């Protein structure tokens, strides 16, 4: 206790309290102190209250309450901070149309795409913190109510999609339920009932009784067909399959056979049905909107500036922002897609052409100039997965491991990883300072990622199990693969694992450990 007093006592005086008096406050009063400190321009002498003083008050609240309430108040403040960031951005016009600066129409998202990463993170923080608060406050009665509503919501969205009702509703002008029902050939009474369920979560709107119009959320499902594909995958495939998991366990027990899955119990098909174009399209659409669609977050995870003027060999086609991170780095992009290779070669040659003399320097935008400069530092090579790595002396070799899917088993994924590790071992052993950066979607340990991302990855993992008896890769899979790579001169070792709580990918840094040569 004395350590706490000596460390935090002076800061506590900044808000006019001591630890002794603080312990006498009720929880409500304690939280009020922090709210006052954050919202009022509180000054001590001539100095405003600093962030560390707020942190001190927050610490004291955590000190005087159990961990559940400490977590509760932390989530409340996270929402408050994130809401303030978004409100300030809105007041500055950051969410107005970038060209016309006009206000949004009802079908525009409150926070449009293309905003800064800070604003995206603020939105994510609000969503995740509010979900956490609901979990803390929900009792069995509320949980069952929530489950029933979500069941009816999914059924309603499936109904709207299957009868193509969304395409019959104007994007911005309200129309009557009668007109929509006639156009979609559905009963009006059922249309009204279903629409009002969906409108509870902001999907469609009823601006006045008897009229319906799209909301910002529902309009996206008209303008972005892949969102509709993802929805139908959830309602038509994932939902009925998941409900047969109990029956599959009773019937098959523990099994990894592709023809002994909940999916097979529902649809009575062969494992080859996973290759059906419609199923693959819908599953790909779902993955596009899930945690799999975060590979481009890598630039903010790895410290690329620490490499100086080195070379980065990039065996992943989806990371396009890296060349703009450092003007000193050279990039070699390796792809096994011949069409993409040819396309990137053309772009690279075009960007190397000198600018037209008819264009002045002022006419070239900074964005175009950066793109041209960065592209001239990018070489493109064709290389199949697992082929020997021929580029010697690079600072970093970057490899993204695509996750398992309904057509790609975890054993296939690990076999490809094993081949890439073996292909890079000679160049890593020749240059011990070089690093192989492996980027993967790994099933996380509980609590490592934010609740939303952990739930997303665990959903993907159990869905793979229900569809194909497959799973996501785990860290132990990687360690086992590394243990198999080596010879009498050295071996591969994992030197660092990086996990960002707000990103679903794990970054693994692998180096070659060279054994000392025995003296004669």
TrEMBL record:
SUPFAM superfamilies: Winged helix' DNA-binding domain. InterPro entries: SAM-dependent_MTases_sf (IPR029063), WH-like_DNA-bd_sf (IPR036388), WH_DNA-bd_sf (IPR036390). It comes from the Eukaryota. This is Uncharacterized protein. It comes from Aureobasidium mustum.
């Amino acid at each position: 206790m004395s350590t706490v007093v000596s460390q935090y006592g002076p800061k506590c005086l900044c808000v006019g309290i001591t630890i002794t008096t603080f312990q006498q406050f009720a929880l409500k009063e304690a939280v009020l102190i922090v709210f006052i400190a954050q919202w009022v321009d509180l000054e001590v002498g001539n100095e405003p209250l600093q962030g560390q003083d707020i942190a001190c008050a927050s610490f004291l609240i955590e000190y005087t309450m159990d961990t559940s309430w400490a977590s509760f108040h932390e989530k409340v403040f996270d929402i408050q901070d994130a809401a303030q960031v978004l409100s300030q951005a809105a007041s500055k016009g950051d969410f107005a149309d970038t060209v016309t600066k006009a206000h949004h129409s009802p079908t525009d998202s409150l926070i449009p795409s293309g905003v800064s990463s800070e604003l995206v993170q603020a939105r994510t923080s609000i969503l995740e913190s509010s979900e956490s608060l609901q979990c803390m406050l929900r009792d069995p009665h509320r949980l069952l109510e929530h489950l029933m509503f979500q069941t009816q919501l999914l059924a309603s969205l499936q109904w709207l999609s299957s009868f193509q009702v969304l395409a019959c509703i104007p994007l911005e002008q309200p129309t009557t339920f009668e007109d929509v029902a006639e156009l979609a050939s559905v009963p009006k009474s059922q249309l009204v009932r279903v629409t009002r369920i969906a409108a509870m979560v902001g999907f469609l709107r009823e601006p006045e009784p008897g009229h319906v119009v799209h909301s910002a959320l529902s309009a996206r499902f008209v303008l972005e067909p892949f969102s509709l594909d993802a929805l139908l995958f959830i309602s038509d495939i994932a939902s009925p399959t998941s409900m047969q998991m109990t029956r599959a366990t009773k019937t098959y027990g523990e099994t990894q056979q592709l023809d002994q899955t909940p999916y097979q119990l529902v649809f009575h098909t062969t494992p080859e049905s996973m290759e059906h174009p419609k199923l693959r399209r819908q599953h790909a659409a779902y993955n596009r909107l899930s945690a799999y669609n975060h590979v481009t977050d890598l630039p903010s995870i790895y410290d690329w500036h620490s490499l100086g003027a080195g070379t980065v060999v990039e065996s992943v086609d989806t990371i396009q922002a890296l060349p703009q991170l450092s003007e000193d780095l050279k990039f070699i992009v390796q792809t096994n897609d011949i069409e993409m290779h040819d396309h990137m070669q053309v772009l690279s040659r075009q960007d190397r052409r000198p600018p037209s003399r008819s264009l002045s320097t002022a006419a070239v935008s900074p964005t175009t100039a950066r793109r041209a400069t960065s592209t001239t530092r990018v070489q493109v090579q064709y290389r199949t997965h697992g082929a020997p790595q021929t580029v010697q002396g690079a600072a970093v070799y970057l490899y993204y491991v695509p996750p398992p899917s309904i057509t790609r088993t975890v054993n296939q994924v690990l076999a490809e990883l094993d081949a890439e590790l073996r292909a890079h071992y000679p160049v890593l052993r020749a240059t011990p300072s070089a690093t192989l950066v492996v980027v993967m979607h790994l099933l996380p340990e509980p609590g490592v990622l934010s609740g939303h991302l952990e739930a997303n990855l665990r959903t993907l993992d159990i869905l793979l199990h229900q569809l194909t008896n497959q799973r996501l890769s785990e860290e132990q899979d990687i360690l086992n693969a590394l243990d198999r790579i080596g010879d009498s001169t050295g071996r591969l070792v994992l030197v660092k694992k990086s996990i960002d709580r707000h990103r679903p990918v794990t970054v693994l840094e692998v180096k070659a450990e060279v054994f000392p040569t025995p003296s004669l």
